[in-house]
Amino acid sequence: MGNTLCWSNSDSYRESDYVVVGIPDESHSHSIRKGTSSAPDRIRQISKERDVYVENGLESLAYTNLGPSQSKIFDLGNVSRRDIPQVFERIIRDDKIPITMGGDHSLTSLIIKTLGKKSKPLSLVYFDAHPDFVSSTVDFYGSVIYDCLPFLDMKSSVMIGIRSPEFEEIQNIKKYGINVFSPTDIQYSGLKQTLNEILSTLGKNIYISFDMDCIDPSFAPGVSVPVPLGLDPLTASILLQNIGKCGILGMDMMEVCPPFDIQDNTSHLASRMISEMLVSAKIHKKIPSI
Ligand SMILES: [Mn+2]
């Protein structure tokens, strides 16, 4: 096999529960920092270097504390931005769960528009330093929420890690009523209370979008728009694991920017975060009718 995510444990698309998809595209980013298009392959490569131990020529996966995932995970490789509707329609038609690696965050709106055709409205869990709720300009990495509005149930959606909103984004948050949990809120309320509030807010069609810039840049320097005073990785992973337990329709990992990384720490964290979700996730298999 070529460069696949180390957590992929199946070479059969047909048998898989989760399908890993890379989308090396940053064409709708306005960031000064370039390089998120190299993230899918970099995260795969680093997962194989850091989350795999080699002893006497034999490879052994370095699992999370919960051990291996009970699910079958297949890495489909990379697809283009143009192919998103076709690729994701097939994945959801086949009752599989997409795990996407971007790329810039605008890719999320294309995925949500495709998923939303089948399961609507979605409860979006949006980990990000920025609300991405600009409405004066559309179809870029800063307008994801506005672009997806017809597919979202805002009352049962949450933003986690927000700490750098623009004025029009603050107005849109108030107008459309999405629930925001800033890093400061989480520090004040504590992790357990925050988690309870998030879980009691979410509906059943959960989609998780994880912009790596939700994490503090001291832990995740390799992102395209870093903002200080962010979440610590352990807090984010505990939230991610517990949301995963509810069952999800899909997840993405966006905005990792390898050219600005330090010692590949951000790519390594991306690999670990994906595995934390995969090991805790509950699979909702269709029960065959008798
Ligand atoms: Mn974002």
Keywords:
9 helices, binds manganese (II) ion, Arginase, Chain A, disordered C terminus, two-stranded antiparallel sheet, alpha/beta, 290 residues
Could you explain the architecture of this structure?
- The chain has 290 residues and is an alpha/beta fold.
- It has a single domain, classed as 3-Layer(aba) Sandwich (Arginase, Chain A).
- Helices cover 33% and strands 16% of the residues.
- It is built from 9 helices and 10 strands.
- Strands 4-1-5-10-9-6-7-8 form an 8-stranded parallel sheet, with helices on both faces. A two-stranded antiparallel ribbon has the order 2-3.
- The longest helix is centred in the last third of the chain and has 16 residues.
- The C terminus is likely disordered.
- The site of manganese (II) ion has 7 residues, from loops.
Q: Based on CA inertia axes, which overall geometry fits?
A: globular
- What is the helix fraction of residues, given as a range? 25-40%
Number of strands: 10
CATH architecture: 3-Layer(aba) Sandwich
Indicate the mean pLDDT: 95
Beta-strand share of residues:
15-25%
Assigned CATH class = Alpha Beta
**Distinct compounds present:** manganese (II) ion
| Oligomer class | single chain
In whole angstroms, how far apart are the ends? 39 Å
Number of helices: 9
The CATH superfamily is known as Ureohydrolase domain
Q: Give the spatial strand order of the biggest sheet.
A: 4-1-5-10-9-6-7-8
CATH fold category name: Arginase, Chain A
